[in-house]
Design goal:
This is Biotin synthase. The chain is of the alpha/beta class and 336 residues long. The chain has one domain: Aldolase class I (TIM Barrel). Helix content is 38%, strand content 16%. Strands 1, 2, 3, 4, 5, 6, 7, 8, 9 and 12 form a 10-stranded parallel sheet that branches. β7, α9 and β8 form a beta-alpha-beta unit. α2 packs across α9, α8 runs parallel beside α9 and α9 packs parallel to α10. The protein is globular, with a radius of gyration of 19 Å. The protein starts with 8 loop residues before the first helix and ends with a strand.
């Protein structure tokens, strides 16, 4: 299948607004053509530095300006992070993501410690992902050298809606970070959140932006807002499964080889709704009791769901060419 990065906004609009059953059927067919059906990657996300963030993201309980009850803590000890990564691997995760509530990476001892964490988790044979805020080219290169596999930096919403949600960094700041990640040869993970009070047009515009980047993100998380008391969006209604299906199915059609991640909001979704999302093209989840600071299904619940639906976990480094091995710090995959 030919990958396109020249989708028009009208084309995305037409795909998204199909009758939902036709949309899901089309997405399922593309998923079967381009992905291993019945295979879902299990990821775990750990907050290695929580709270105290200077930004004003209206959905985020970690913003210092909101009173949400989140207890701020500095960087976790390396041993605690490594133990969490080992537990995640033992429970079936193949990607371990580390998040720090920073506006941007600073070249200091905390960043040096994160680089060490990346190297250690990489040594466990897990795909290592980080979400640390904005970064520059040099910092992206350092993360790559430490063994980072993927970097998450979400667009969150459309350019038009963005200023209603965040004023402390620009949309172009986000796009620039994605460019630095891509240039460093790190896998790009970027998606958004629905349920922020945006319109369907905003959702379509965000998907259009992602699908017309110079290269499709290797993974696109689709998050449903988890409203948190104390944030400006605390009273937003729950996102319906039909809204999630439209987002997931459209993302699958536009970006057929991308991992589409059923992310935040899954705690409120029964297995029947999650099954529909997998049918529509989702092929990754986050498992573990928390997704940074919000509730998330635990490993046992997800194992039961996998057994019921006949799903199997995706292996680590599946996209690394056969015969290549991930070397240590500073090394790219090389022929075995």
């Amino acid at each position: 299948m030919t990958l396109r990065t020249d989708w028009t906004l009208d084309e995305v609009h037409a795909i998204y607004n199909q009758p939902v059953l036709e949309l899901v059927t089309q997405a399922a067919a593309i998923h079967a053509e381009t992905q291993a059906t019945g295979e879902v990657q299990v990821c775990t996300l750990l907050s290695v530095k929580t709270g105290g963030c200077p930004e004003d993201c209206a959905y985020c309980p970690q913003a210092a300006r909101y009173h949400t009850g989140v207890q701020a803590h500095k960087l976790l000890p390396d041993a605690e992070v490594l133990a969490s990564a080992q537990r995640a691997k033992d429970s079936g995760s193949t990607r371990f993501c580390m998040g720090a509530a920073w506006r941007e990476i600073r070249d200091n001892k905390d960043f040096d410690r994160v680089l060490g964490m990346v190297e250690q988790v990489n040594g466990l044979g897990l795909e290592v992902c980080c979400t640390l805020g904005m970064l520059n080219e040099y910092q992206a290169e350092r993360l790559k050298q430490a063994g980072l596999y993927a970097y998450n930096h979400n667009l969150d919403t459309s350019r038009e809606k963005y200023d209603d949600i965040i004023t402390t960094r620009t949309y172009d700041d986000r796009l620039n970070t994605l460019e630095h990640v891509r240039k460093a040869g790190i896998s790009v993970c970027s998606g958004g959140i629905i349920g922020l009070g945006e319109t369907d047009e905003d959702r379509i515009a965000m998907l259009h932006t992602l699908a017309t980047l110079p290269a499709h993100p290797e993974s696109v998380p689709v998050n449903a807002l988890v409203p948190v008391a104390g944030t400006p969006l605390a009273d937003q209604p729950r996102v319906s499964v039909w809204e999630m299906l439209r987002m997931i199915a459209t993302a699958r059609i536009l970006m057929p080889h991308t991992m589409v991640r059923l992310s935040a909001g899954r705690q409120e979704m029964p297995v029947t709704e999650q099954a529909l999302c997998f049918l529509a093209g989702a092929n990754s989840i986050f498992s573990g009791e928390k997704l940074l600071t919000t509730p998330n299904p635990d490993f046992d619940a997800d194992k039961q769901m996998f057994a019921l639906l006949g799903l199997k976990p995706r292996k680590s480094f599946k996209d690394v060419p056969e015969g290549a091995v991930l070397m240590g710090r500073g090394k790219a995959p090389v022929e075995a």
